[in-house]
Amino acid sequence: MTAVRTLGQFIIERQNDFPYAKGELSRLLRDLAIAAKIVNREINKAGLVDILGEAGTTNVQGEGQKKLDVYANEQFIAALQSGGECCIVVSEENDEHIYIDSEISKDAKYIVAIDPLDGSSNIDVNVGVGTIFSIYRRKSTDGKATLDDVLQKGTEQVAAGYIIYGSSTMLVYTTGKGVNGFTLDPSIGEFCLSHPDMAIPKDGVIYSINEGYYTHFPDGVKKYIKYCQVEDKPTNRPYTSRYTGSMVADLHRNMIKGGIFIYPSTASSIKGKLRLVYECNPMAFIIEQAGGFASDGYKRILELDVKELHQRTPIFIGSENMVRKAEEFMASFS
Ligand code: AHM
Ligand code: MG
What we know:
The chain is of the alpha+beta class. Helices cover 31% and strands 21% of the residues.
């Protein structure tokens, strides 16, 4: 019989991968995993709104119900606050970065950027949603960490991960030494190693993009979509189109099966929709660690300059050969 390896055990085993490891990053990952379990519990109750009360109302126990994205944001921030390893949190839900000022976090070295509940419009229809996180080490060595500590390039990430609240709940993360996936076993309340050394196929047959905006896409993207749809046996075309509206779910599927996810610029939103710091950079780090690639259509996502907390970027991410092909179309037509 093979023994179960929990996330907690795995993190401790891998701690020595870091020359400066003192257990701080391990504790930080543990704190995020605890918050993920609490958020997971709440998401699983989401279908019971008729019994428990709608968000914004008071439930039968007299407790106020919160919108799940607000709830998730509070849980992750609270876990980071009480863990003591994080000095600044950047969240999709907050306009400004949040300083964690407490006695236990006065020597904290890590900055966490987080999208607490990505794809939250899917909650109402019981389709998978996710959490995305990215971890940096602060660069400044004394005083309070600053905005410059936050605005680091994606290549500077020390860890990144996502949690997918799907038909089962999984936590997938990297510390720059491959990607490992853990499935939550609700009966023991632990994330257990289920997907060691995840690798994305170099080629795939799935393309994921919101084709409803087709007429607003740049020509390079329009031509690439047409390329995906053309019959060509040697390259397994036409490809299959799959899009849930939840980036974590779409990328998780494409990582396992092989595929490309695109959120390009559109006529009304020239930088696209997705945010660099807490959506694109962490996903790019994970996908590259799994052997894939992420681009803004021309340049590697992880090397983009970060100027603002909520900066947006177009993204082409997934199986390397598919992303390179899409870049060729962008170079030729856009
Ligand atoms: P959110 O952070 O407000 O949930 O938005 C991000 C989500 C992604 O998960 C998803 O890929 C995209 O928005 C879907 O957008 P659209 O409905 O424009 O296709
Ligand atoms: Mg989001």
